[in-house]
Amino acid sequence: MGEDARSGETVDKWQNWGPVEAARWIAVPDASSDKYKRGVLGVVTGSDLYPGAAVLGVEAAARTGLGMIRYVGAQRAADFVLHRRPEVVTAPGRVQAWLIGSGMDAGSRPQDDAVRLGAALRDGTPIVIDAGALDLIGDASGPVVVTPHYRELAGVLASRADDDPDAVTADDIAADPGGWAVRASSILGVTVLLKGHTTYVASPEGARFAVTAGPAWLATAGSGDVLGGVLGALVATHADAAGRDASVLPALAATAAYVHGRAGERASYGGPIAALDIAEALPEVVRELLNRHD
Question: Which of 123, 150, 166, 222 could form a disulfide with 173 if both were Cys (CB 3.0 to 4.6 A apart)?
């Protein structure tokens, strides 16, 4: 059992999430599947300043497995995305889930981005919120999973604390990440995937999953954007279930963390890696899990 670093409250025991659990959440198409049935992910990520975040998230989603990706973010980022993945659709339309916020800056948000983010948040479908859209959690109308690191979570919680001088800091969260993941899920009312060497997933309904996978080399620029793409793809392929059952989103979040970490292991082989290396290793990890499930 663990304790909340600020309140001293005891929290539930964490369930370790590994390949056996993750293998159950990989969707496999059958003979009747088409691109729409396999899941369509809408993406509003990247920006004119940070177009690479959009490329990495889209690349990861495509390599995790789904039917279609609709990228409807900034034009400069869209150009980079299409150069890397020409099959991506850049026209608006129906989606099963959204990935938003990676590579965006809430402090200098262009009006065009605000409109795009607002439309995704109001769509009512399950949504993955990262980085530069974390300030918009309360605007979402569908099921939500957020993917902050320590500093981002501290910022979100501080914004809810009404200028409390004792507001949580990144150091507080680093001292007890599991406890703060639980507390944040309760305060925010959403599933929280708190990134770190051990990733903690907590939901208001009581899910408590811990994922330790991947080398320390995963701490590299763009790695979180790849994780967002993996999770977006998993949510899109299980969107109906995620909309009906509150236990689904935390399971998908933990699976994304495991798949991302295992891809880091495969890409590294003990040496340094870049974010795109992680994305390119994803199909092998998915095949590995499918073979285990069979």
Answer: 150
Query: Could you tell me if 141 and 123 are in contact, meaning their C-beta atoms sit under 8 angstroms apart?
Result: yes
Could you give the 3-state DSSP secondary structure of residue 75? helix
Torsion angle in degrees (nearest 10) through CA of 153, 231, 58, 29: -170
Which sequence spans correspond to the domains of the chain? 15-293
Find, among 80, 121, 81, the residue nearest to 99 by Cα. Answer: 121
pLDDT per residue as tens digits for the range 154-205: 999 998 876 565 689 999 999 999 999 999 999 999 999 999 999 999 999 9
206 vs 208: CA distance, rounded Å:
6
pLDDT tens figures, 268-285: 999 999 999 999 999 999
Give the separation between CA 235 and CA 56, rounded to whole angstroms: 17
Grouping H, G, I as helix, E, B as strand and the rest as coil, residue 57 is: helix
- Sole residue written with tokens 């599947």: 33
